[in-house]
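Researcher: Please predict.
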Amino acid sequence: MMRQWPFVASLGLDVLGFIAQLVALQRLPLFAAQAMIAGNLAVTAVFAAWLMNSELTWREWLAVTGVTVGVAMLGSSAGEHAAIGTGPGFKLALIVAVAVIALAGVASSRLPASVRTPVLGAVAGLGYGVLAVAARVLPSFSPHHLIKDPAAYALAAAGIVSFMLYATALEDGSVTVATAAVVLAETTAPAVVGVLFLGDAARAGMKGVAVLGFSLAVVCALALARFGETQQHATVEQGAARKHGTSQPVDNGEPSPYTVS
């Protein structure tokens, strides 16, 4: 994979995006940063429509617009926030939370197939939420602070556990269902923690704008969750084409997955 420039480029973008996420989590309220991160589904939808030669319905364009407007409302209502330090007890609680999420993930993987995917997605989303909270309470990203701070270990563990749980949810379930569950959990839970424990708040007189913007961005992001399936569909069709000795997708009499219903 490292010999394929699209993969290397995407990996580089992921790294840059993660660094930007960490910076945003320390400068913005969690409700704003997490909703903006969930808004990446709008970008995915637009680029998927362009690169995969599919067409967005008017409802999907409306959802893309809704995400954009919601994010703009959050940006205008949230002032700059300095990282808030919390006591050692709170940071140790984050490590305990990661352990509980890992155990919940193991238990969820044994559920019946009909509920396993959404539950695993939700648990993975809670893990990503712990990652966000841990990044929020880190006083600095310097190696000297990271080595001594329990929140840094909670952040790393939450990232690994959440990635594994999300991957497990995708193994035999709907990408749309799993992605929607992740988006809902990773935005709502950290937002509540930020308001209750970390002093997150909107600018004076902008609370209603913040609530409306958050709700609009998250709901519209959920409506666009299906665009996580684009790469999965592409891989399936390309594999079928290679198997039949042709560079074109095989016509098996079924609707093309690129067609937007």
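Model: The mean pLDDT is 84.
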